[in-house]
From TrEMBL:
It comes from Micromonospora kangleipakensis. This is Putative Zn-dependent peptidase. GO terms for molecular function: metal ion binding. The chain crosses the membrane at residues 506-529, 541-562. It comes from the Bacteria. Keywords: Membrane, Transmembrane, Transmembrane helix. The keyword Calcium does not apply. Residues 471-496 are annotated as: Disordered.
Length: 567
């Protein structure tokens, strides 16, 4: 059984284990509590808290998720006590001398992170806020200060906002959780960037991904298993369209859960996989659910609940439930709920899934034919302001007192200052405004006829805590209009033009033909001037001279045009 007790004012969950002792300290704070302009602060604090601990023979780690941050260790009783005691002490006495080093480590971590198929989904559902921030780089790292970190630790890393869990038979001797007093922090409200659902968006991935929001309940977790079985049978076994097929069910701490499904596809089979994926959803939505799939999924979950270490394995999730105020059920209570799930319950979940669905589809495909609405990629309005034309193109940038709009190819795009999640600012004057709805607008002063004060207006209107200074760019990375980009700088030799293979032979043939025809025509012209008028009718000869000179001009045209192209 899982027992609940108290250690230094921190709620604690404990369950026996036959293996090595392990323990974790979980705080109710994560990326969803941040803003885009200061994103990465929780992750940075986690790294700084672990930095002084150095190397150890036992496994320890930290993790930052959307709604929680945890510190974990497996090892001896004394090592666990020393680890968690040190973490609680270091959180409020961070090694600020390592601040810039840890920032660089986090930037490297992001750059080496693989692009999973589902990485873009949170941005499209939630925008540039709360749960959507996991899709963005940690832009805020550049601007986070020592003061920011201390204030963040004082607010979130308190004993009232933490839960300790221990897989073992006792509290490690010498463990001290020296955390300051605070308050239990609620789960942040969840935003939406989708005007309506079901919706879809196009992504370069070769996978089809479903993201949906359902009420948190046992039937929803069972439905995820039933959906995976149905997809595996249809898309892999019967049609041979997909290899990787999986589903996931993840509570988000507010009485709801995210339910996802993924099926991969070869480039030539993307249309077929998308069609088969939607057919499976439609089948379940109308209630065509197999009793055998329900029975198999329930039996599999009952086997998991019957494992010897089930209580110890459930400790991290139980700690999160306790932190977020969700019901904490015993194994017997979970078994009882599993037995009550019916096909009618799964049918209700299937309807919830369809109603809230966000579908990621591969390039070159759409899902509007199946009743899905394309997720917005443009703004529905513009703001009034001073207009600045593009130097090359038909676009127009409008800088106003309420926001900025771009009207032109790919637009309209609008970001209001009050709804700006982050303003990325480069030293050369470039700006990128990212709205709460994830609409982003990049402004390169070199590409617009901007007044020198236009960028200053934008900087003044966006709140200071949303401004993110970006590192300087090398000159060759700053976009230029086409003509300016191809004009050599003072003291710089023009770059040689790459000729096509046929240009030189054509110019040689054109030159030889021009010399031949032009030379004959020139001799004929001289002859006619010298000839006596009485020699007879020479009109037809003058006609030949005219034709000769015309041919000479035509034959010389390739040389003139190719030389002009080279210049």
């Amino acid at each position: 059984m899982i027992r609940q007790l108290d250690v230094d004012g921190v709620p604690t969950l404990m369950a026996a284990t036959a293996g090595p002792m392990r323990a974790g300290l979980t705080f109710r704070v994560g990326t969803a509590d941040e803003t885009l302009g200061r994103s990465g602060i929780t992750h940075l604090l986690e790294h700084l808290a672990l930095a002084p601990l150095g190397l150890t023979d036992y496994h320890f780690n930290g993790a930052t998720a959307p709604i929680f941050t945890s510190f974990y260790m497996q090892g001896s009783e004394s090592d666990i006590a020393g680890f968690l005691t040190a973490v609680c002490r270091t959180i409020h006495d961070l090694p600020m001398a390592r601040l810039e080093v840890e920032k660089e480590i986090l930037r490297t971590e992001w750059s080496s992170r693989g692009n999973a198929a589902i990485d873009a989904v949170p941005l499209w559902r939630h925008g540039a806020r709360d749960h959507g921030l996991t899709s963005y780089p940690e832009f805020g790292l550049h601007a986070i200060t020592e003061h920011d970190l201390r204030a963040w630790a004082a607010r979130w890393f308190t004993r009232e906002n933490a839960v300790l869990w221990i897989a073992g038979d006792r509290v490690p001797a010498g463990l001290r959780l020296a955390l300051p007093a605070g308050v239990r922090q609620p789960v942040p409200p969840v935003s939406s960037a989708l005007p309506r659902t079901p919706a879809y968006f196009v992504n370069g991935s070769r996978a089809v991904v479903l993201d949906s929001v359902v009420r948190r309940r046992t039937a929803a977790g069972v439905f995820a298993g039933v959906l995976e079985r149905e997809m595996y049978r249809s898309l892999r076994q019967e049609d041979g369209l997909s290899y990787t097929i999986n589903t996931g069910y993840e509570p988000r701490g507010d009485g709801h859960a995210t339910l996802r499904a993924l099926a991969d596809a070869l480039p030539e089979k993307q249309d077929a996989v998308l069609g088969g994926f939607i057919d499976v959803l439609a089948k379940l939505r109308v209630g065509r659910i197999e009793q055998a799939d329900l029975d198999a999924t329930v039996a599999k979950r009952e086997d998991t609940l019957g494992a010897a270490e089930v209580d110890a394995a459930r400790l991290p999730s139980q700690a999160l439930d306790l932190l977020t105020g969700q019901p904490t059920l015993t194994v017997d209570e979970l078994r009882a709920e599993l037995k009550t799930v019916t096909l009618a319950d799964l049918h209700q979940v299937a309807q919830e899934v369809t109603a809230t669905a966000l579908l990621m589809v591969p390039d070159g495909t759409t899902a509007d034919w199946a009743g899905f609405t394309e997720a917005p990629t443009r703004s529905t309005h513009t703001v009034p302001g001073t207009a600045y034309r593009e130097r090359e193109g038909d676009g127009e940038l409008r800088v106003g007192v309420d926001g900025v709009s771009y009207v032109g190819p790919g637009g309209p795009l609008t970001v209001r200052y009050a709804e700006c999640a982050a303003l990325l600012a480069w030293p050369d004057g470039a700006r990128r405004l990212i709205g709460h709805d994830a609409i982003a607008m990049h402004i390169e002063p070199t590409l617009f006829d901007l007044h020198p004060g236009a960028i200053g207006v934008i900087d003044q209107q966006v709140p200071a805590d949303r401004r993110v200074p970006m590192p300087a760019r090398p000159p060759e990375k700053i976009p230029q209009p086409y003509a300016a980009a191809n004009r050599p700088q003072p003291g710089q030799r023009p770059a040689p033009v790459q000729r096509s293979w046929w240009e030189v032979p054509l110019m040689v043939l054109s030159g030889l033909a021009t010399l031949g025809v032009g030379g004959i025509t020139l001799l004929l012209t001289f002859g006619l001037f010298i000839a006596d008028e009485s020699d007879g009718d020479t009109g037809w000869l003058w006609g030949m001279v005219g034709v000769g000179w015309l041919l000479t001009v035509i034959l010389a045209l390739p040389i003139v045009l190719l030389r002009r192209r080279r210049r």
